[in-house]
Amino acid sequence: MPVTVEIERRNGGDHSGQPAWQCPRCHEGADPQAVKANLQVCPHCGHHLRVGARERIAQLADPGSFVELWMSLRTLDPLSFTDLETYPERVREAQAKTGLTEAIVAGTAQIASVSCVLAAMDFGFMGGSMGSVVGEKLWRAAELAAKERLPLVCVCSSGGARMQEGILSLMQMAKTSCAVDIVNEARVPFVAILADPCTGGVVASFATLADICIAEPGALLAFSGPRVIAETTRETLPPDFGSAERNLALGHLDAVVPRAELRERVAGYLRLLEGGGDDERRTAGRARGRGARRLATAATRRVATLVSHARRPFDRGDREVAGAPEES
Ligand SMILES: [Zn+2]
């Protein structure tokens, strides 16, 4: 019996009259290399495509300046979680797809010659979801920024908490918020770049606690997506609901910055916030560094207490511990 097999050409562009790359918004075609050279922005309509963590770092950091840290951190499977696949299987697939170990890449870099701690999230890795490793890397990035007196820059793009880690993923909201306290206390700047989409537990924690919050044009920034809100409230939402531009108009953002200007704009903010002469900065920096370490210790205790409480929510004794006054 004859068997018919349909073969679809994946590469090589023009065989079906379709361009090799087509803009999802304006549907105009372009050369993929030209789009990449244009920082993954449509050359026709300016639509900002999503960018993976490595490409994002290459766009922002000076060539060869990025040194990745904490690469060996791997998530566990604390709940032995399984839906259609097990959690470890999903992680392995995401690793194979993105070439990353987790949904965030962090390290030190220079942006237009300004040294900083730079972290970038990758929506392609399980929707950029925030689990224990994302929280821990963000925490370590904040500690390093405080200790070395370097500004912290984070590109935030996420669908929210990683449900496969249950309550432990929600705990990362508290942990990363405490991490922002560390950089605040050390008085080093924290700049967050919110990229499409930035939603859920990330937009509701560290991403919007930065000294300066900027976003890319057209990025969706919301706790829940428009469809969920429209279905829940049964109201018609404005067409620009959750867009970066609407968030700017409502005062949730400091600026909406096109990708082509991001690098210079962020470097400009960092230079502006650095201020003061070198000697003055060093002296003040040492004192602040000591304060930051004390705060980090206190914050670690707070998080440990909260995690312990979350693990044993029905233990009366634990509740008393969680309600005990904080150490200063
Ligand atoms: Zn376009």
3D architecture notes:
The protein contains 11 helices and 10 strands. It has 328 residues and is of the alpha/beta class. The chain has a domain of 228 residues: 2-enoyl-CoA Hydratase, Chain A, domain 1 (Alpha-Beta Complex), CATH 3.90.226.10. Strands 3, 4, 5, 6, 7, 8, 9 and 10 form an 8-stranded mixed sheet that branches. Strands 1-2 form a two-stranded antiparallel sheet. The radius of gyration is 22 Å and the shape is globular. The structure holds zinc ion. The site of zinc ion has 8 residues, from loops.
Q: Which descriptors apply to this entry?
A:
328 residues; alpha/beta; eight-stranded mixed beta sheet; 42% helix; binds zinc ion
* CATH architecture verdict of the domain at 51-278: Alpha-Beta Complex
CATH top-level class of the domain at 51-278: Alpha Beta
The CATH homologous superfamily of the domain at 51-278:
2-enoyl-CoA Hydratase, Chain A, domain 1
Number of strands: 10
Q: Name the ligand types.
A: zinc ion
Largest sheet: 8 strands, mixed
